[in-house]
Design goal:
Layout: E1 2-7, H1 17-23, H2 28-34, E2 39-41, E3 44-45, E4 57-62, E5 78-82, E6 86-91, H3 108-115, E7 122-123, E8 132-138, H4 141-149, E9 153-161, E10 167-171, E11 174-176, E12 184-186, E13 194-203, E14 206-213, H5 220-227, E15 250-258, E16 265-269, H6 274-277
Parallel strand pairs: 8-15
Antiparallel strand pairs: 1-4, 2-3, 2-4, 5-6, 6-8, 7-8, 9-14, 9-15, 10-13, 11-12, 13-14, 15-16
């Protein structure tokens, strides 16, 4: 059970509980659920239309959730940080984030279920199977809702080959190439997508880029770098050279966000893995 307690200030004197809850980041869905229970004022069960008074004690309750994902720990996945509301994990390459056909026991979700058996898997920063790096997960409904309303900031590292500009921005819309397939393409009819990059290391023709995103489209970095003639090394789907690495050379090396409950600024880093380091 996760409990949140608040002392009502003068600003919310005479306001309904749902007004205060919206101010605190509770989503419409969560407030709707609280109508069925899980809300008290001064220790008594209350509805979200309860009119509040200054110095009232308002509390919300989120019961443990039974996960339907089979727990299966993977020693290569690392728990970097956790508290009552968030967890930051390192996902190595070749590990899917979610379960899918052929991947029912070897995912980040399975490892999460082993770590947090009474918690639903709510990953806020998903990575492709072959992309390594940091992932942020919420440990309750409220934390998830607040994180989703304030997108975490991520820094990626990618390896490419060729005379790539030292820095630049790719601002090109992206959409699925065809219905039912995973590949994406740049097209005027796609959704807006903006990628910023700069070179931080070189080894001959091979360049290591730092990449920041303004948007979060599927395969955005891979599609954008391929569209300007510099597909990621190892990225066979988008035309990358597979001679030095057997997966797309892409790693989420830093994640920043404000803690959904404490509002503290959180920042975590993870060095690039060995297969990418070998390139340089």
């Amino acid at each position: 059970m996760r409990k949140f307690s608040y002392i009502i200030g003068e600003d919310f004197e005479g306001k309904e509980a749902k007004v205060f809850l919206r101010h605190m980041g509770y989503s419409a869905d969560i407030i709707k659920d609280l109508k069925k229970g899980g809300l008290t004022v001064n220790g008594e069960a209350a509805y979200t239309v309860r009119v509040l008074r200054s110095d009232d004690l308002l509390e919300t309750f989120f019961p443990d959730e039974v996960s339907d994902i089979e727990p299966n720990a993977n020693p290569e996945i690392k728990l970097i940080y956790s508290d009552e509301d968030v967890a930051v994990l390192y996902k190595p390459p070749y590990v899917p984030t979610h379960q899918s056909i052929g991947h029912y026991r070897d995912t980040l979700a399975n490892h999460f279920a082993a770590l947090f058996p009474n918690t639903r898997f709510r990953v806020a920063t998903r990575l492709d199977k072959n992309t390594s790096g940091l992932c942020l997960a919420a440990l309750n409904k409220l934390a998830s809702a607040i994180i989703c309303s304030h997108r975490p900031k991520k820094l990626y590292y990618a390896a490419v080959k060729g005379n790539v500009p030292f820095s630049g921005t790719v601002d090109l819309p992206i959409e699925r190439e065809k219905e039912g397939i995973i590949k994406r393409i740049v097209t005027p009819y796609g959704k807006p997508a903006v990628t910023h990059f700069k070179t931080v290391m070189a080894n001959g023709e091979n360049k290591l880029l730092e990449i920041e995103l303004e948007t979060g489209r599927t395969h955005q970095i891979r599609v954008h770098m391929a569209s300007i003639g510099f597909p990621l090394l190892g990225d066979e789907l988008y035309g990358g050279d597979t001679g030095l690495i057997s997966r797309q050379a892409l790693h989420c090396g830093r994640i920043e966000f404000f803690h959904p409950i404490t509002k503290e600024k959180m920042r975590f880093k993870m060095p690039i893995p060995e297969d990418m380091r070998k390139i340089f």
